[in-house]
Input
Amino acid sequence: MTPKVRETLNTIIDRFKSGDIPEAVAYSMFPIPNLPSSRWSLLNRTLMFFSGTQDARGIKQWNSVNRNVKKGSKAMYILVPYFKKNEEEGEQQQILNGFGCRPVFRVEDTKGDALEYENIELPDLPFIERAQQWGISLKAIPGNYRYYGYYSPGRKEIAVATSSECVFFHELAHAAHHILKGNFKPGQDSLQEVVAELSAQTLAVMVGKSAEDTIGNSFRYIKTYAEKLEISVHSACLKVMSETEKVLNLIITGHVDNRNSIKEAA
Output
């Protein structure tokens, strides 16, 4: 095993120790269509997530879309299998002969022509000041058919692939829920998702969005997770009503309501 391969694998092992693996795997499970990394292994997509990006490519791949790696940028490394040919009984077979490392660079370390997803214009989103107050950054990302945004507790980051306020509200609700609970289940926990979507729908109505424009998608979204819990949509919403109220109170006022005392959220 080469030193670089060992170093790359140690990155994964260290993340197991810190507890970051479930979150990274959850978002790496659904690669962005039409990007070179969508054909990478789950391990390499997870390494990419650890590096703080959702788009990484080799120098030639960046050059092919009229982008260049910025001077002084450091490569991240992905694992590449090496095969050898073995002829047995007149048939040629490819046998795994080990792994090597290949350098790739994050989109954040390149410059040049704009990529399609970089043209997403994020409007002046309501309640964005709350995310800023909590030290949470907001960025545009390429989306896929499985999700249009995410909240990363470890990176204190909200990423959205659309300018829709409801998607931002959903991820902001996750952030508020995380602040209130102090710990957060990685991936798409059913009850957490119901809290986030119910909160998002409420915030959308508060800022004047038409219910006809948003409530259908929200109902279907909550129904998906209610079915996983084997309860009705109505029961799922009632089950999380208390937590949803606290999440909304934190977003709207910026304070945690502990009934007998009010503490400013940090």
Observations:
- Strands lie at 56-57, 67-69, 76-88, 91-106, 110-112, 137-140, 149-152, 157-160, 255-257, 262-264.
